[in-house]
Design a protein that fits this description.
Helix content: over 70%
Distance between the termini: 42 Å
Order of helices and strands: HHHHHHHHHH
Oligomer: single chain
Radius of gyration: 24 Å
Structural class: mainly alpha
Strand content: under 5%
Shape: globular
Length: 291
């Protein structure tokens, strides 16, 4: 048996100490949850009238469901554009030509460094500010542009890392068979890299879906806008509405994660890859210089 240099198997005293700490932590968490629920109950947040709107069909058909549809529309369009953006600039960062590699790296690092909320604000107000004319950018377009630029830059790093995770011997074998760079990329590197970077892509898609909620600050009528603005303004039930909307978001993300996990498993069964699984890219400024 080989010893694990990163973790020592706990002995009886360590196991007892860990169990005690776990029990104490659980008690503290339950106590905090109890105090929070009690405070909300004392304020009448769990009264039947606060939850009654969510039993009405017109609230769902007129506000919640349209909010879900708007959220999914922005997420799907942004995801498709971000994937295209990520592929183009990820491959650009791998180019052998510095006049392609350096600008691609600058674009990726620039948009990764800017907070997504600022990108959305600039996408809506920037054209009018720069041109000096009244330019009306729809809220949907501003949200999609911001999500595409930010998440596309993150995906560019994922694609680059995925391709680099394939052992160099794979591409060298392709070149020895007479394949050109395009053929090596298309036939050898990309199929293996796709399987390796699928978990990171799925994770980023979930992040993108949740980030659509930032659209509410520019009056994009998505799920959070309906849940924290319109419904509470009509019924005065901010906390119950936030809880319901949170459950809806969780359900959507669980469905997305389930579908993506099934696709990943099917991809791994149908393909053999020597590439290592790619994780989320490092934060800007930590090993992210443009090569």
């Amino acid at each position: 048996m080989s010893a694990n240099v990163l973790f020592d198997v706990p002995g009886p005293r360590a196991r007892l100490r860990n169990n005690i700490l776990t029990l104490v932590s659980a008690v503290v968490i339950l106590a905090v949850a109890y105090l929070l629920i009690k405070a909300l109950a004392d304020k009448g947040q769990f009264a039947g009238k606060m939850w009654e709107p969510f039993l009405r069909g017109d609230v769902w058909t007129g506000q919640i469901i349209p909010g879900i549809i708007a959220t999914l529309q922005a997420a799907v369009v942004s995801a498709l554009l971000a994937l295209v953006f990520g592929v183009v600039f990820g491959l650009g960062r791998l180019s052998e030509h510095s006049w392609i590699r350096m600008p691609a790296g600058a674009v990726v690092e620039f948009f990764r460094a800017i907070p997504l909320l600022l990108l959305i604000f600039f996408a809506q107000a920037g054209p009018a500010t720069i041109s000096g004319y009244t330019v009306s950018v729809p809220a949907f377009a501003a949200v999609v542009i911001g999500l595409t630029l930010y998440n596309g830059s993150v995906l560019a790093e994922v694609f680059r890392a995925g391709i680099l995770s394939v052992p160099r011997g794979q591409s060298e074998a392709g070149y020895s068979l007479g394949l050109r760079k395009g053929g090596v990329m298309r036939l050898i590197l990309l199929p293996q890299a796709t399987t390796a970077m699928m978990p990171a892509i799925v994770s980023q898609m979930v992040v993108l879906l949740k980030d659509t909620a930032l659209g509410w600050v520019i009056a994009y009528e998505e799920l959070l806008n309906y849940g924290l603005k319109q419904i509470p303004s009509n019924f005065g039930n901010l906390i119950p509405s936030a809880i319901v909307i949170s459950v809806v978001y969780i359900a959507i993300n669980l469905v997305l994660s389930y579908i993506a996990t099934r696709l990943e498993r099917r991809s791994r069964r149908s393909r053999r890859t020597t590439a290592t699984v790619v994780g989320a890219p490092a934060a800007v400024g930590v090993g992210t210089g443009a090569e």
